[in-house]
Amino acid sequence: MGAFKKEVAEKAIRSLHLEASNQQFADYWLSLWQDDDLPARASFSPARLKAFLPSLLMYDVIPEQSVIIRLAGTGYDLILGPSLAGKDWIALTPEDYRATRLQTFSTIARGAVRVAYRSLAVLSGDDIMTEEILLPFAPQPNGVHPVLGRVNWRQDQLQRIKTISQGTGGAIDHRLVSLR
Q1: Span 3-24, pLDDT tens digits
Q2: Which end of the chain is more exposed for a tag (fewer CB within 10 A), N or C?
């Protein structure tokens, strides 16, 4: 039996009151659990989430050391630039927010879920409010803790976003919930 409990994870997800598409995304992640163990990265199939692919991110986290982007959906090309895969997410973060981001990802990697909200300024029309979710996978033998993320923006909104700094800085609000 694992150090986690699936029912605790389900309760944690419910407590976040996610919008519908992120709830569907989290439900898929919950379906990957085997008994009371965090899901294995190998059990994740991006093909099962085709509608979400442009808004997915997969990170390789070594707690207290590094956060490397392993996979980035095509939507991030428009906001943060092409070819994010393999880049250091902490180095792409504003300097005054790096320690906070590394600590947050370390906490998630060890068994927490994070939901965050950003208001993204756009070139025309109302600002876009996004909901981001980060979910952990079981650690791999090499010490890497995969973390899966998604932002609930729509593809048609991306061309209107003014600046990339909105995507790399701190959120306007967030919740971090332990899975233990």
Answers
A1: 899 999 999 999 999 999 999 9
A2: N
